[in-house]
Automatic annotation (TrEMBL):
GO terms for molecular function: alcohol dehydrogenase (NAD+) activity. It comes from Thalassovita gelatinovora. Residues 10-319 form the Enoyl reductase (ER) domain. Gene3D superfamilies: Medium-chain alcohol dehydrogenases, catalytic domain, NAD(P)-binding Rossmann-like Domain. Its EC number is 1.1.1.1. It comes from the Bacteria. This is Alcohol dehydrogenase. Keywords: Oxidoreductase.
């Protein structure tokens, strides 16, 4: 099979598109013939050695994939050959075939493969962040940074389902239009962010901030929180990990809350499974609709990751073997 191979932590242009032996299902594993592999910001960090997880090399990146079950191990109980499924595989998604444990596989029926990938990491992260970590309440003000990206779009849609007023923050007019079409109540830029949020909330501040950006945007939001607010730390797309003055949390009485979705899926597998069932149900009833911006050949992985890391992507991007 063809796959994208990271032989050593290195710049993205060092990724190889080459042949590997087909995977074999053992125990409770299934082999999936991949229709679509989701591209995520952490994938680009991972292959450069800049992510929390540092797998042994060589490895195939790719946290999520959708396709058709090609073979099953002897201990698989609930899946059969021919089922259309999606998986959180942690590694291995950027390939024509991927092997993963049955417990990480979800039936998707006739769902579009790209949409299914988006529901895995992007929507999974935002759902966990807003539901378990923020406990977002109806009527609260949710500020979403990086709101035109895959996780941002998910946060907007999920925030609206949960009854929040959603203020999207994006770097361009084009991206702000995407955020508004996705369901945001208002969309603003990053200039004078602290003053804008103060004015838009009548001086109260944000109840919840969803921050995938870090840097100066985090600094502005850390001074724009409401009492009992929750400032969610998801990532640092700006490239700058901010330093937090803890006196702000004391004086303004709000919480800074870390969100590490991958750790959540391992630590609380049943809650994670319940979350995915809810997300898939929302998709089936039209409450959420991923924005799949582009579909590219698997061989273009390095170029696609370069664009994602440069914050040039809007919505979800998938690779198709």
């Amino acid at each position: 099979m063809k796959a994208i191979i990271c032989n050593e932590f290195a710049p993205l242009d060092q990724l190889d598109y080459a042949d590997l032996p087909d995977p074999v299902a053992a125990g409770d594993q299934v082999v999936i013939k991949v229709e679509a592999a989701g591209v995520n910001y952490p994938d680009g960090l991972l292959v450069q050695g800049q992510y929390q997880m540092k797998p042994d090399r060589p490895f195939v990146p790719g946290m999520e994939a959708a396709g058709v079950v090609e073979s099953i191990g002897p201990d698989v109980k609930n899946l059969k050959v021919g089922d259309r499924v999606a998986t959180i595989c942690q590694l291995g998604g950027y390939a024509e075939k991927v092997v993963t444990e049955e417990g990480r596989v979800f039936p998707i029926g006739d769902m579009d493969g790209g949409d299914a990938c988006a529901l895995m990491v992007a929507y999974g992260t935002s759902h966990h962040a807003l539901k378990q970590r923020a406990d977002l309440k109806p009527g609260e003000v949710l500020v979403v940074l990086g709101a035109a990206g895959a996780t941002g779009v998910a946060a907007i849609q999920i925030g609206k389902i949960m009854g929040a007023r959603v203020i999207a923050v994006c770097s361009s007019e084009e991206k702000r239009e995407i955020a508004l079409k996705t369901g945001a109540d208002e969309a603003i830029g990053y200039d004078n962010l602290k003053d804008q949020l103060k004015e838009m909330t009548g001086g109260k501040g944000a109840d919840v901030v969803y921050d995938v950006v870090g840097g100066a945007a985090f600094d502005a939001c850390s001074r724009s929180m409401a009492r009992n607010g929750r400032l969610l730390i998801i990532g640092f797309a700006s490239g700058t990990i901010p330093q937090f003055p803890v006196n702000l949390a004391l004086v303004k009485e709000y919480a800074v809350v870390g969100v590490f979705w991958g750790n959540f899926t391992r630590a609380e597998p049943q809650v994670y499974a319940d979350n995915m069932k809810e997300l898939i149900g929302w998709y089936q009833t039209g409450k959420v609709k991923p924005v799949v911006e582009g579909r590219y050949p698997l061989a273009d992985a390095a170029n696609v990751l370069t664009r994602v890391l440069g914050r040039g992507a809007t919505g979800k991007i998938v690779l198709e073997p």
